[in-house]
Amino acid sequence: MDKGREQCLGAGSRQRRTFSVDDVIAWTRENVSVPRRRTVVQLSVAALLIAASQFTVTTPSLAAKVKSIDVKTIIADDYAVNNTDNTNLSYALQASHEEGSALVMDDAAFRAAKLSGFKTLQGSRYYPYYGTVTESSVPAQSSYPERFVAIMKQSSSPGTPSADRVCPGGGNILVEQKNSSSSPWRVSLEPLLARLSSVPAFLTSSSGHGHFASGGSYASKISTLPTTVVVALNAQARTGDGGSLLPASVFAYGHCGTIGLEDPHRDVGIYHGLVLSFSASTITPSDVSAYETKDGGALALFTVREAVSEKPAAANEYVIWSHGATSWWSVLPAGHYSTVSWTMDQELAVYVPSATSSAKARIVGGYVGVVAVTGTPLA
Predict the structure, then answer these.
(1) What is the DSSP string of 268-283?
(2) Residue 378 clears pLDDT 90, i.e. is over it
(3) pLDDT tens per residue, range 91-134
(4) Which residues make beta-bridge pairs with 272?
(5) Backbone angle region of 245, left / alpha / beta, with phi > 0 → left and psi within -120 to 50 → alpha
(6) Based on the number of CB atoms within 10 Å of its own CB, is 197 exposed (0-12), middle (13-18) or buried (19 or more)?
(7) How far is CA 334 from CA 17, 43, 130, 330, 355, in A?
(8) pLDDT of residue 258
(9) What per-residue string of b and e applies to 236-271 under the rule 16 or more CB within 10 Å gives b?
């Protein structure tokens, strides 16, 4: 794809500096680690908000009997269905085992793949991968929705090219949710772990039953955690300082063992001549789900929303949007635009230390997907 091209648009017109799509967008770069599901684009904002409004969250009571749940079978079934729908690009099959932000982002990925003429999520051929449960927490619950969390070590199928293989030492966290006695278990949150060792063990019994982190001295930290992260992200965009929650390590990108969050402040710096606006916000209703760890802390999982818009600094400049090698370029028609805007959902896994610990909360996993892209055509 050409970069930094210049064109004269008609006799006597001022020369307009043009920006190719490579110049405009940096946040959607794909990590070299293979995500559980690709995070590409396109869902209308209206559909995005409808999907979010249909995902209601309640806090189950802890004074309830513990049910016996076959976590390993549920997770194995989920990976099997996931590999099948990624191969067939089946919205219906995907909806049978996903909901919430997981479904919103993954349906967007399917739409991008279909618009690009892909036969599978990865193009002409899909390489399946699998998850082995290393630990889980199944809290006592008395009402629906019921939830549990599981941590998986991922593995690639034999014959998978090195570029498509999962990273060693990494993994996946799944929050599974069941909304009624007759409904199936579905994935609602699915952040990736850069390192399995970064998550302290859950507080569980010998049978794997655990506890929601809904009480105790750290409860207020967890309930306000999405807002705390949003404040840090917006500060990072403005000043480059997101505080202790957003150290440089969470923005490290391009190799195994890193989380690879996009750094809006850094990206502003590399695009000379472009005006960028960024805003992060919480989602309504909140989808925060938190589980106690053995050390007295908690692992909290939730989604935040990020809105980004870029436009050239001068009125006589514009953006060239063209279709490239990855599927998500296809979601916006090729053409010339005065502005390009998009919405992303960012799932996060955050470890919250106990109130008696001097340690700070830290982001241990994440999963981001661009779910809406819009452009203002050049007049």
Answers:
(1) HHH-TTEEEEEEEEE-
(2) no
(3) 999 999 999 999 999 999 999 999 999 999 988 999 999 999 99
(4) none
(5) alpha
(6) exposed
(7) 17, 17, 36, 8, 52
(8) 83
(9) bbeeeebeebbeeebbebeeeebbbbbbbbebbeeb
> How many Cβ atoms are within 10 Å of 325's Cβ, its own excluded?
8
Other Cβ atoms closer than 10 A to 280: 22
Task: Count CB neighbours of 104 within 10 A.
Answer: 23
φ and ψ of 22, to 5 deg: -65, -35
Residue 160, token pair as written in the block: 């998978």
Q: How many CB atoms lie within 10 A of CB 323?
A: 17
- Give the residue-averaged pLDDT of 241-255: 85
Written as six digits, the tokens of 218 are 């750290």
Residue 365 and residue 301: Cα distance in Å, rounded? 9
How far is the C-alpha of 281 from the C-alpha of 268, rounded, in Å? Answer: 19
3-state secondary structure of 362: strand
Does pTM surpass 0.85?
A: no
